[in-house]
Design goal:
By secondary structure, this protein is an all-alpha fold. The protein has helices spanning 7-10, 21-43, 55-84, 91-110, 116-140, 149-164, 173-206, 215-233, 241-260, 271-280, 282-295, 301-327, 337-359, 364-390. InterPro entries: NnrS.
Length: 400
């Protein structure tokens, strides 16, 4: 990263607030772990918690708009500094954004019904404010290539609003539209960023030739996710089941071809790279499960969606957090055995929560618990390993 920040000024800021990835990756991974523990304990009847809008709403909402949104914010607020050569938010501004995110989590979990408007407003402000901080820097140098993230963040905010509409008297279907829409938007973001970085990381990590993109395949694969997103939003409006099944299967094929070209087999000795490849596989897997669901197979929509949320989204988050945290703290891009265990854990968690559950639905509760425990292991290991990394200055003495 370029030395674009006054290092003397940087030393006055606590390391945790020097760049967006630090607090959001750290607290996001902790939240991912603790919220899953709470979900599992509630599922087994060990504890009783009554968050706003109920426990099921809380689990689906907070995994997407709490945990995932935090990691997206941390990544974009860090990446925009590299893209634009303009310092990103840090210090007081970053602390404010982190506190805003944390306050929303607390209000949703512990707030009373009368506090719903405050919780909703606090939560809904987070992503647009992140979009403002990112877009402001991108627009300053007219780097329009990276403006795609701004409408995506705005659409994510709209999906978040959808999840609150039933509590305001609207039809209950809006909550599912919000969570399914957010899932497909983040999957789109994962696919988009994966296409940008995975061929390059594969070439650099394995000392092989970089695979060049095929323009029609890239556009078609990303566009297919938009089609699936629209059809999922319309699923309660009319009978689009067969059309949705065909669209999902077509999207799965396009993404499978795209990822096959990236040569997963050359990465098996490089954990920071194979972790990216394996988690991306859950995009076509999840799309196939969605296709089977809408075709009429005995696979629940939740099972199919969790292939995307746990596998593609959770797995990509874990892999990218590891890489970004090392690179932006001046460390070698290498991970030890514990993080390799974490990568395996999140992949197996996704397999259990989607593929295994689709085949053996009679073991639903057992698979939910096993998948949840593996998820906690994966993100708990990240928090444990990266707490000293994210809360300390860069090892090379540079800003960031």
């Amino acid at each position: 990263m370029l030395n674009i920040v006054d290092n003397q000024q940087e030393q006055k800021i606590t390391p945790l607030l020097r760049l967006g990835f630090r607090p959001f990756f750290l607290f996001g991974s902790l939240f991912a772990t603790l919220s899953m523990v709470l979900w599992l304990l509630t599922l087994r009847g060990v504890v009783s918690v009554e968050p706003l809008n109920g426990m099921l709403w809380w689990h689906s909402h907070e995994m997407l708009f709490g945990f995932t949104a935090a990691i997206i914010a941390g990544f974009l607020l860090t990446a925009v500094q590299t893209w634009t050569n303009i310092p990103s938010i840090k210090g007081g501004q970053l602390l404010f954004l982190v506190c805003l995110w944390g306050l929303a989590r607390l209000l949703i979990l512990f707030g009373t019904a009368s506090m719903l408007p405050l919780a909703m407003i606090t939560d809904l402000v987070f992503l647009p404010l992140t979009a403002f901080f990112v877009g402001q820097r991108v627009m300053r140098i007219r780097q329009y290539r990276n403006l795609i993230f701004i409408p995506v963040l705005v659409l994510m905010s709209v999906m978040n609003l959808f999840t609150y509409l039933p509590s305001l008297g609207f039809d209950s279907a809006w909550q599912a539209r919000g969570t399914h829409g957010m899932t497909l938007l983040v999957t789109f973001l994962v696919a988009f960023l994966g296409g940008r970085v995975i061929p390059m990381f594969t070439a650099n990590g394995t000392k092989t030739t970089k695979v060049l993109p095929i323009k029609w395949l890239e556009i078609s694969a990303l566009a297919s996710l938009v089609v699936v997103l629209v059809l999922l939003l319309l699923k309660d409006v009319g009978d689009f089941n067969m059309l949705t099944s065909i669209a999902c299967l077509t999207a799965a094929l396009l993404h499978a071809i795209r990822q096959w070209r990236w040569r997963i087999w050359v990465t098996l000795t490089v954990p920071l790279v194979w972790s990216l490849h394996f988690t991306m596989l859950f995009i076509p897997i999840g799309l196939v499960l969605l296709s089977l669901h809408f075709f009429g197979a005995n696979i629940t929509l939740s099972t199919a969606i969790h292939s995307l949320t746990v596998g593609a989204i959770g797995g990509m988050i874990l892999a990218m957090m590891s890489r970004v945290s090392l690179g932006h703290t001046g460390r070698m891009l290498q991970v030890g055995k514990l993080m390799s265990v974490a990568y395996f854990a999140v992949v197996i968690s996704a397999i259990v929560r989607s593929i295994a559950l689709a085949i053996w639905p009679q073991w639903t509760i057992q698979f939910w618990v096993l998948a949840g425990c593996l998820w906690c292991l994966a993100f708990g290991l990240f928090f444990f390993k990266y707490l000293p990394v994210l809360s300390a200055p860069r090892v090379d003495g540079r800003p960031g």
